[in-house]
């Protein structure tokens, strides 16, 4: 029981209502009447949600009319009478309000009746004073008939509470100033320049104008996106909560999850538009040869992140030249690079999760968006097999092309019985170069064959292959065999 009371106390504190515990006396609550009614409204609304709103709606049009929320016998009796009047007025009165709005008015009416029954008005006892046109609307008609039914005076503050909830003075807000405050605070908190989006400014202003200055205000709107927004965009959600709690109302009945999420949806539209129009980050990958390991890095990066594209590959030797030619947004290298104006991220030959995290953070900074928007590239996994097939085919074609050109250079001095072996050797050398697994041990070379070194090296270079001296010496060995 003590644990339950502590939970109740925490919930009441959200509404600035205190739970008073007195020995030999019991428990009571203290606080502003508007805050106490907000607590009661949340309790009844929560009960209605579990009771099933569709069932309540059906009760407006079927007989017999029975409503039991199970909160207390007194409240059930009050709502029984109110819904009977609601049913009659819904038929007689044309209204643009939906059942959800009517249900909110009915719930507030029940709370007002219950509180007035123990002499707890929301504010003053001033008689109601509204425009004649408003008297023909369903909220006032319902207010009038229910209060007359209980012989209560028609009070201005009670009607304002029923129509607008506990914060009837929200319409006093300067919506233009409020819009700017929300935009600036959320932009600063999330690090995204929302304040630069004029369409967002217009949409947010219109939304706040409708919510805060309309004739009737209802706080139990169903929003199916609440859970997704809170889970996927926690920084955005928290930023909106902080600024709306400060600038609009600290009352959780007003600034609730649904209210925050509806505002967040406008920001997410702006964010999605920004991401879509923002160019992909062009990346140059650099390793010792500019091929094999960089292909592995490329695959891992693209599998982890969307919004990136290949600008090109380069070896450490020609890195600066290629960076200047390709003008990428970012360079990913397994070697430290100096005197490069483009941002460089140094990674391990086999990128770790920490490497991917660094890359993700840099790309988010370059795109000026939150990291959570850089989702995995779903197409990458689907195309991995296709890419590997393409790489294999290209290596075979490239290897045969190199073989033909090398054969033209030194084929006349190679014994015919070794030419098939040379073909296989060159195919494998292309494969080794691509995957950065070249021979490393340099052996002596027959000086009679030095003249073939540069032409063969140039053949490989012309085909985008950075061959080292060990591989060149291995090819020249076929001349020794001959």
Automatic annotation (TrEMBL):
Keywords: Repeat, Transcription, Transcription regulation, Transferase
Source species, domain of life: Bacteria
UniProt cross-references to Pfam families, sorted A to Z: PRD (PF00874)
Record-level Gene Ontology MF annotations: protein-N(PI)-phosphohistidine-sugar phosphotransferase activity
Domain called PTS EIIB type-2: residue spans: 281-371
Ranges where the PRD domain occurs: 170-277
Record-linked Gene3D superfamilies: 3.40.50.2300, PRD domain
Gene Ontology biological process terms, A to Z: phosphoenolpyruvate-dependent sugar phosphotransferase system; regulation of DNA-templated transcription
Protein name (Swiss-Prot/TrEMBL): Transcriptional antiterminator
Naturally occurring in which organism (per UniProt): Loigolactobacillus rennini DSM 20253
Lineage, opening ranks: Bacteria, Bacillati, Bacillota, Bacilli, Lactobacillales
């Amino acid at each position: 029981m003590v644990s339950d009371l502590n939970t109740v106390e925490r919930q009441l504190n959200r509404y600035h209502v205190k739970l008073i515990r007195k020995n030999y006396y019991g428990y009571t609550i203290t606080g502003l009447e508007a805050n106490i009614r907000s607590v009661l409204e949340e309790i009844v609304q929560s009960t209605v949600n579990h009771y099933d709103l569709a069932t309540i709606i059906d009760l407006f049009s079927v007989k017999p009319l029975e409503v039991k929320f199970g909160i207390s016998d007194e409240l059930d009796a009050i709502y029984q009478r109110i819904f009977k009047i609601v049913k009659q007025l819904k038929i007689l009165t044309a209204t643009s309000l939906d059942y959800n709005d009517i249900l909110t008015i009915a719930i507030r009416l029940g709370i007002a009746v219950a509180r007035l029954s123990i002499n707890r008005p929301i504010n003053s006892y001033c008689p109601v004073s509204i425009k004649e046109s408003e008297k023909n609307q369903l909220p006032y008609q319902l207010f009038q008939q229910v209060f007359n039914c209980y012989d209560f005076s028609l009070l201005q503050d009670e009607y304002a509470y029923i129509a607008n909830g506990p914060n009837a003075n929200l319409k006093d807000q300067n919506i233009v100033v409020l819009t700017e405050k929300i935009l600036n605070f959320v932009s600063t908190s999330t690090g995204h320049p929302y304040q630069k989006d004029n369409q967002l400014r217009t949409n947010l202003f219109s939304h706040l104008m409708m919510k805060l200055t309309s004739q009737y205000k209802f706080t139990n709107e169903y929003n199916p996106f609440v859970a997704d927004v809170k889970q996927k965009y926690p920084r955005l959600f928290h930023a909106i909560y902080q600024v709306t709690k400060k600038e609009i109302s600290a009352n959780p009945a007003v600034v609730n999850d649904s209210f925050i999420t509806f505002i967040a949806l406008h920001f997410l539209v702006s964010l999605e538009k920004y991401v879509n129009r923002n160019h992909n980050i062009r990346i140059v990958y650099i390793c010792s040869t500019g091929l094999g390991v960089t292909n592995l890095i490329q695959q891992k990066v693209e599998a982890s992140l969307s919004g990136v594209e290949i600008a090109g590959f380069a070896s450490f030797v020609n890195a600066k030249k290629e960076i200047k030619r390709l003008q990428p947004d970012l360079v990913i290298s397994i070697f430290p690079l100096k005197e490069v104006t483009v941002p460089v991220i140094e990674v391990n030959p086999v990128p770790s999760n920490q490497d991917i995290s660094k890359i993700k953070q840099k790309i988010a900074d370059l795109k000026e968006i939150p990291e959570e928007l850089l989702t995995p590239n779903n197409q990458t996994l689907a195309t991995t097999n296709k890419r590997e097939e393409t790489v294999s085919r290209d290596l075979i074609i490239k290897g045969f092309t190199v073989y033909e050109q090398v054969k033209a250079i030194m084929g006349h001095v190679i014994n015919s019985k070794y030419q098939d072996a040379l073909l296989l050797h060159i195919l494998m050398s292309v494969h080794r170069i691509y995957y950065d697994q070249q021979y490393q041990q340099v052996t002596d070379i027959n000086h009679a064959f030095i003249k073939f070194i540069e032409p063969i090296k140039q053949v490989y270079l012309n085909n985008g292959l950075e061959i080292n001296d060990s591989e060149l010496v291995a090819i020249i060995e076929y001349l020794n065999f001959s």
